[in-house]
Design a protein that fits this description.
By secondary structure, this protein is α/β, with parallel strands linked by helices. It is built from 22 helices and ten strands. The strands form two sheets. Strands 6-7-8-3-9-10 form a six-stranded mixed beta sheet, with helices on both faces. It has a four-stranded antiparallel beta sheet with strand order 2-1-4-5, with helices on one face. α19 links the parallel β7 and β8. α5 runs antiparallel to α8 and α6 packs across α7. The protein starts with a helix and ends in a 5-residue tail after the last helix.
Length: 576
Amino acid sequence: MIDPQFRRALVYVTQYWRRLVLVVVLSLASTLASLAIPLLSRNLVDDALLAGNRSMLVRVVLTFAGFTAVGFLMNIASGLRYTRVSAEILFDMRLDLYRHLQRLSPRFFAQTRMGDIVSRLNNDIGEIQRVAAEAALAWVGNILFLVGAVSMMIWLDVRLFLAGIAVLPVSVWALVIYRRRLEGRVAKFRERSADIGSFLIETLAGMKLVASSGAQEREVRRFRDRNNAFIGSLMSMQRVTYLAGGVPGMLLSAGMSVVFLYGGSRYLDGTLSMGTLVAFMAYQVRLMGPVQALMGLYASLATAKVSLTRVHEIADVPVEVVESPAAVTPTIVEGAIEFDNVSFSFDRGAETLDRVSFSAAPGETIAIVGRSGVGKSTVGDLLLRFFDPDQGSVRFDGRDLRTLTLAFLRRHVVMVEQSPFIFHASIAENIRYARSNATDKNIVAAAQAAGIHDFIDGLPNKYDTVVGERGASFSTGERQRIAIARALLADPKVLVLDEATGSLDPSAERRVVDNYELIMRQRTTVLITHRLDLAQRADRVVVLDGAKVAETGSPSELLAKQGAFAQIFQEDVGLR
């Protein structure tokens, strides 16, 4: 009975059955070529040795060499073919897992170490592919016979054994030469593998941005490009690997030719019995079995099972937000939002939001304020539908978000976070991320609106400046303004700013707010903020306290009321 872990993995294999049939046919051809060699013993004994025909002896030896070469070439063809197919099976498994990760909520990434995710996605699946390749191409039977064959050959005739390994020094020399070539190929292969690892770490860390920008398919294409480079380096390495193992093997097989000639000559001279010669040659054939299988098939399968289990643990994580098959894409978009009796919890023992209700008309600006931990940022996550409420509903233009396609929702609702994600790419590429077809003119206009154009224009490479890993070469305020420019370029109907100017100094913040207020006319804006100056720019303020709505109204009304809103800013409590 097939283990459940292997049964799940077979789903990926069956998709390539036609191409795998060719691998099997090539392997069978290689095996048949090898199996034909013992038949030459009959010709050797009957037509060459017993008949005393030296010319026949040479012809038999040449025929043997021909079969050996055919087997060698067929083995390379089947091995390279299987390497490519297994690499594509590997990518399919990785791609499915990567797509699954794209659909998981931020809750999963907050609870799981990124290194552990990447290890399973890259290393464990790579180990599965390695074991699969070994299991498919190993000659287990020859491994079991190897030790006994060598022992019997020495016992039968030491001189004949020494003659058979006479070419060993040349084989070792060939192995050293090809190993040197292999080192460069392996180094390049490791680099391409590291490229995939770096890509995964970067995009997984920015998965909210990928999802909210509707860039999943774009990232899949980038992933595929890196994988193609990985496969190219893998195939280059594998070709040299086959030569590094095959050429010395071919040279060692010449030792068999020496056995034929030397042993045959000794038989003709009467110094070696026919039975001894035939038995010795039978063992000699067995010496060419694949040594790599000595690791043991069972141990390899056990390792693969562990890796499969680790991979399936992630694949089995449930997707919290699932798009309904009946989800719609409205043609008329206005930008009205509404929270209707919304409750939500992060399973920490208390409600993050408790029966929260508020609304914003198209084009209206509302501010969400409150002390730390009252659920302000959760409002943005629910609007982007990174989570679904436990109770109540969130609506966009009167429709429950669960009835809308995710692509539609995240096209028209864009969020800028307090710590926005910045890719290791140029400034222009970072701003263009939310709208891949934007022109350079569009990018400059968005940067001007975000108050960062003058800074970028003063850089040596201007918009082509690379910001570094996670934007590390720029300040937090500069990264925030790049993110604001990216959001403005997306031209959404609803813009959510979650402390998006929190790292700017008051002067820079005023310039940014003045600029984007002009652009956000006719758009709905949600300001999640702890700054009074910014909250006073809103048409209405929603104050959260104890996960509930404490009060709502215009900024001037709430300040005059001297309620929760006024107390928050009077006490100067730091908010997230």
